[in-house]
What does this fold into?
Amino acid sequence: RELIVNGENGYLVKLYDDNNFIERVKEFLSNESLTEKAAANAIDTIKDFTVENMVSAQIENVEKILNKNAK
It folds into this structure.
């Protein structure tokens, strides 16, 4: 799962795209319901990103690599 889901819990903008970044900030500043919705969604999203989940995912990745190399 991705940490930021564009339009759901935040916005993704291209690196160095200042105009798009400014527009997105303006959207949040001018639309309180959008800001509240994105904040609530962000809180829900972050629940999946506990230390335990992140470590477990890394262990699974290492095990997959080791199993693939053992064949």
